Amino acid sequence: MRRRAIIVAGLLSALATTAYAQTNTAAGNVQFGSVPSDAVLTKNLLGLKLTNANNDTVGEIKDLVIANGALSGYILSVGGFLGMGDHYVDVTPSSVAISYDANDKKWKGMINATKDQLKAAPEFKYEGRFNH
Length: 132
Known about the structure:
Layout: H1 2-24, H2 42-45, E1 49-51, E2 57-67, E3 70-78, E4 87-91, E5 96-101, E6 106-111, H3 115-120
Parallel strand pairs: 1-6
Antiparallel strand pairs: 1-2, 2-3, 3-4, 5-6
């Protein structure tokens, strides 16, 4: 009887290990990369104020849109005061130029638009699955 219990416990342990291995590898094998020297991290983008050619602050990056594993847009906050009355718009990554100023040791963002043009753009709303 004791021998049978040990065999059953061993089989259950083997089955549990196999089940764990199957669920653990469902996402594929881990691959490691290296961060290119010209890359920008999310923490440097969120909250980054955007200026235009006149050096007017016209918006701020509030969120990133990731689709199919790649950056597909920036959600900009335009207008508002202390988070009240913000107008959010989605712009393509090519609409925004991000650079690092080594002298000032800070990130800069530029967009070729006025605050009024951004306010007039179709609004993105945080609702449904995008509610925060």
